[in-house]
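Hey forum,

I'm writing up a methods section and want to include a predicted complex as supplementary material. The small molecule is zinc ion. I've pasted the protein sequence and the SMILES. Can someone with a working setup run it? I'll credit the forum in the acknowledgements.
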Amino acid sequence: MNFICDNNLGKLVRLLRMAGFDTAEDLSHSYEQMIKQSLEENRVLITRDSKLINKINKEKLKISYVKIHSARADEQMKQVLKECKAEIPFDKLFTRCTLCNAGIIPIEKEKVKGKIPRHAFEVQEEFWICPECQHLYWAGTHWARITKRFREISKE
Ligand SMILES: [Zn+2]
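Reply by user p_vandermeer:
Happy to help. Structure tokens for the complex are below, copy them as they are.
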């Protein structure tokens, strides 16, 4: 399942990407552009903007959408999963770049030397790089923390 979120949902965008969902973030600030991308790429549109929802309904656009209620990212994610009847793909966690949505790929430890905090370099063995934006990733303690958070989110 693929999503497109409006640009007021940055935390949710990152959570969905960390969970492995293909999630576009609309940075155009344009209803037309966001609607177009949602239709063309078959993405569920996620927004808190009532005007945008009204427009979709009024124009009878064939778009699946989620109108977000909560201001909290965890609650937002719960709502998305529930309304889309989706489950967190626990075998795909941390396979996407949280910054740009591209799939991340493994990179040799030698190649990240000097480019990441020393402590992370010393204690970690596996690293990944985003082929689009070159951001580096490693399985720090936050991955365990976020996995736990995902377990909580998918409990209900
Ligand atoms: Zn990236």
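Some notes you might quote in the supplement: The chain has seven helices and seven strands. The pocket of zinc ion is lined by residues 97, 99-100, 102, 130, 132-133, 135 (CB under 6 Å).
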